[in-house]
Amino acid sequence: MANTVLQIDVSPRGADSVTRKLTQNVVERLAPDTIIMRDLTRSLPHLDSDWIGANFTPANDQTAEQRALLRISDTLVDELRRADTIVIGLPVWNFGIPAALKAWVDLVARAGETFRYTKDGPQGLLTGKRAIIALASGGTAVDSEIDFATPYMRHVLGFIGITDVSVVAADKMVLDPEAALKAADEAVLNLAA
Description:
This protein has six helices and seven strands, in the order E-H-E-H-H-E-H-E-E-E-H-E-H. The protein has one domain: 3-Layer(aba) Sandwich (Rossmann fold). Helices cover about 40% and strands about 20% of the residues.
């Protein structure tokens, strides 16, 4: 059975990025047949009134300009649909997620595409997938009262139907970088391929 991993990198630090090293280690551990790479340091558009208008216009009524506005969002949603596992490199900045990752979330959380509203509330449409968050932080401990990144990403992923979420963390790097990296490496080794 073929498996496909969507690898999402956010950090602009290149080779010095802990999250990029972690996402690479996770992907190597998973040994997928296919890897879809998405580097969010290449700017994604932020939502504006034109995009929102295009998104809420029925597909048959959209103009060529509206379809063009939605093209990147359609591509990002397609990447999620094609992937069996999503590996997200998450640097924690100022207790939360980087703006580039928030732009990605805004572009993939689309009613009728990745979730739908029901009489019982929203229902995610991307079920049967797995996500692994490869996180690095300077002083923020994962799931501490000042960690707004990890719970947010778990919630967003669950909102679109991805409820099997694991975290590989190199957190509190400023306190003991060697121990943080060792814990993250051990967590990668413990991931089921």
